[in-house]
Amino acid sequence: MAESTSALYEKLQSQKPQVNLARPTVGRMWLVSLCAFMAVIQSSLSDGFFSLLIAFSAVAAALLAEFLILYQSGRASQLKNGSAVATALILALLLPNTISPIYAILGAVFAIAVVKHSFGGLGANWLNPAAGGWLFIRLASPGAFGKALEGSPLSLLAESLSRGFANPQGSPLGILKIDSGGVFAQASNLDTVIRSFFNDTVFSLTGAELPGGYLDLFAAGAPGIIADRGVLALLAGTIIITATQVNRAWIPAVWLGVFAFLVRLAGAFVFGGAWWGGDMIFALSTGGVLPVAFILAADPATAAKSNWGILGASIAGACLAFFFRFYGGEAYGAIFAVLVVNALLPIVRAFEARHFYDKRSGS
């Protein structure tokens, strides 16, 4: 007798988060933690290791909350699966490097105790715990979050736009060079040397030219979320994630491809440019886009189960991220996009159960 749709849906919901992945959950968690920690280290090198303090505070709080909850239910041995550490480090990536560690602690406890375990633990939550912890901090203390980002490239850019500054080429970096109080006015010698090397080798093959200032942006000591300040290390981490098959590699490829296309197509208008003038490099390397694409959007625990569902969620998330950031005035629109897509997950899985799995069962 064919299973009912509700039974199939329950079976679908109960699948482990590592389904269809080459690497088990424990390995995935520790590899993601390693990649996130690399970005934390890069950010720490230019802020007196305050980024490291934020990350350690989040990890300690997450481990304590996880231990108390698991111990209460007799599952303390599950602490070694690394999910609490991964959640805390991902949360740290999304936080400003100058915010008080108290907020990292509160966000980590909320992520573990409320978002993760109130829905049944690892693999049962429909919302990514790190993104949920970030949202809690952002909404509970918007003043502290905003104050911690004062002087960051995205904050300076927003202030410039509010004063009517524009760039005919639609370049956000061009605006920062003109109206950033001298922070990005002139490229450093290191930026000039490395830019010249890439322009003479890689970019010369395509006839393109990399403008000055990007390396300074990536390695700047200016405030910002830790992921943006550690973007070079994060790029290396994404290579590790892809090479070790932590997640399906095509998910971040689709997400970033759609987002970059939209930025190139219509991302210059807000900065005073025209069609096909959007700055993809700036957009991809700021606003937490990389951890969203490679970690949050590709998280199997908070994703659809079918490839078609995952593809649709990736495209929708990238589109929302673009509109939230460029036309919604939200610099970290990529993170909000993940939260919206996660919120739709129960509906997506119900649709999958009815239209994909129910048909396969012959009912």
TrEMBL record:
Transmembrane segments: 21-42, 48-71, 83-115, 217-241, 253-274, 280-298, 310-327, 333-351
Record carries keyword Membrane: yes
InterPro entries in alphabetical order: NqrB/RnfD
UniProt keyword list: Flavoprotein, FMN, Membrane, Phosphoprotein, Translocase, Transmembrane, Transmembrane helix, Transport
UniProt entry tagged with the keyword Translocase: yes
One GO-annotated biological process of the protein: transmembrane transport
One Gene Ontology term, aspect cellular component: plasma membrane
Name of the featured protein: Electron transport complex protein RnfD
